[in-house]
């Protein structure tokens, strides 16, 4: 009898608790529970954006509609000559970095010639 009463209580309380938890967990702007809590003074107060944030935002935030393509870019893709020039520039930078690495490695080996290895105890 006691077990039946406990089971019945759990069955009745569990959906109510789940509904309250889901309603309380909503953080969107359209939340009647949140609005009621804020109006009574116990909810989170709305915070104004700092001045630098307000200045950096556009006054009219427009969003691209779903299913519409993005506008064409003003900057065109590189042609094959531009790509070849960029590739040569990047390969030159890589070769310079590798040469600097080899020079640093050689200098470190020269500096360590007279030193005895320090075994780990």
Write the layout of secondary structure elements.
Elements (H helix, E strand, L loop, with lengths): L1 H24 L6 H9 L10 H6 L23 H32 L10
Protein name: Lipoprotein
Organism: Methylorubrum populi
Keywords: Signal
Note the overall shape: extended
What does the largest sheet look like? none
Element pattern in H and E: HHHH
What's the N-to-C terminus distance? 71 Å
Q: Which range best describes the helical content: under 10%, 10-25%, 25-40%, 40-55%, 55-70% or over 70%?
A: 55-70%
Low-confidence segments: none
| Alpha-beta classification | mainly alpha
Rg over CA atoms, rounded to whole Å, is: 33 Å
Mean pLDDT: 82
Strand content: under 5%
Number of helices: 4
Query: What is the number of beta strands?
Result: 0
Biased composition (Basic and acidic residues): 91-112
Organism: Methylorubrum populi
Protein name: Lipoprotein
Keywords: Signal
């Amino acid at each position: 009898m006691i077990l039946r009463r406990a089971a019945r209580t759990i069955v009745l309380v569990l959906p109510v608790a789940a509904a309250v938890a889901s309603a309380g967990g909503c953080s969107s702007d359209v939340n009647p529970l949140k609005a009621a809590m804020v109006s009574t003074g116990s909810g989170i107060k709305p915070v104004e954006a700092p001045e630098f944030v307000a200045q950096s935002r556009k006054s009219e935030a427009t969003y691209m509609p779903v299913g519409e393509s993005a506008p064409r870019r003003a900057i065109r893709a590189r042609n094959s000559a531009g790509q070849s020039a960029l590739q040569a520039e990047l390969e030159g930078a890589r070769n310079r970095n590798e040469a600097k690495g080899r020079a640093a490695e050689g200098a470190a080996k020269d500096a360590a010639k007279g030193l005895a290895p320090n075994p780990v105890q």
